[in-house]
Specification:
The protein contains five helices and twelve strands. By secondary structure, it is an alpha+beta fold. The strands form two sheets. The chain has a seven-stranded mixed sheet with strand order 1-2-3-7-6-5-4, with helices on both faces. Strands 11-10-9-8-12 form a five-stranded antiparallel sheet, with no helix packed on it. α2 crosses α4. The longest helix has 20 residues. Bound molecules: biotin.
Length: 256
């Protein structure tokens, strides 16, 4: 482990840089199962993940040395386990805050926590929580962000990188530091109980919020308007059949 010059209170103050690992989330999980306690805010980053994991057992692909793939260790023990979506909001807002300053307002959060630029995916977040009773005890916040990769596998559609937007490369170390700073800022707002602010900002940055678009629900194409997210993190979608509360497996975004 090495110290660095991040201007943060704790996120990234302890930074482990690996050239190759299966998955930074899995590595962090293994570290936690060792007896020595980890400092909150520890960041594990890797140049290359051999088995990067995405949501719902998907793989996370990233070209060697071109992008950011890292995990942050947090201890949100102030949060009730059934309010864990609040953490998703804070993390996705932190990343969005940072990216908007670099690539502009077209950077959005696609529910639940994908990082989008216009209608293409730039990054994803995989949060793995460890609960104790009713409370969240620890969280492994895995972040994958396409930064300097120019071309993507043909199997992946609608993917974009920071450098695709800027037309030039962006310094990975600098971006990591900026993201750690903005994630910490949002995490501290969460810790301070600023839930209304986080909700307001999340909705304001939400991809397709209050716009009519097509969705697939139960093999049917329906028109819907996103109205928000409920406390359990389900998508609130207004359709001709009324307001639906949907989880990730129940709804797919259709790109017309
Ligand atoms: C998604 O499916 O959109 C979430 C992708 C999360 C990928 C990141 S890369 C760093 C961390 N380690 C992993 O194995 N996954 C997350």
């Amino acid at each position: 482990m090495q110290n660095n010059t991040f201007i943060t209170l704790f996120v990234g103050q302890s930074l482990v840089k690996l050239s190759k690992v299966d998955s930074t989330n899995s590595y962090l999980k293994k570290l936690l199962s060792n007896s020595k306690p980890l400092v909150e805010g520890t960041v594990i980053m890797a140049d290359h993940q051999l088995a990067g994991r995405g949501q719902y057992s998907n793989k996370w692909e990233s070209e060697d040395g071109k992008n950011l793939t890292f995990s942050i260790y947090l201890k949100p023990s102030f949060l009730n386990a059934n309010h864990q979506f609040e953490l998703n909001k804070a993390i996705s807002l932190g990343i969005n805050d940072c990216l908007r300053a670099i690539i502009g307002d077209d950077c959005k959060i696609k529910w639940p926590n994908d990082i989008y630029y216009q209608d293409q995916k730039m990054g994803g977040i995989l949060i793995e929580n460890i609960t104790k009773g009713y409370l969240l005890k620890e969280s492994i916040v895995g972040i994958g962000l396409n930064v300097n990769q120019i071309e993507f596998s043909k199997d992946l559609s609608r993917v974009i990188s920071v450098s695709n937007v800027l037309g030039k490369e962006y310094d990975l170390q600098k971006l990591l530091m900026l993201i750690c700073e903005s994630v910490e800022r949002r995490y501290l707002q969460l810790k301070a109980g600023k839930l209304e602010l986080l909700e307001k900002d999340y909705l304001q940055r939400m991809f397709r919020f209050e716009d009519k678009h097509s969705y697939e629900i139960g093999n049917q194409k329906v028109a819907g308007i996103i109205k928000g997210v409920n406390p359990a993190g389900k998508l609130l979608l207004k359709t001709d059949d009324g307001l639906k509360e949907l989880d990730l497996k129940e709804v797919a975004f259709i790109f017309d």
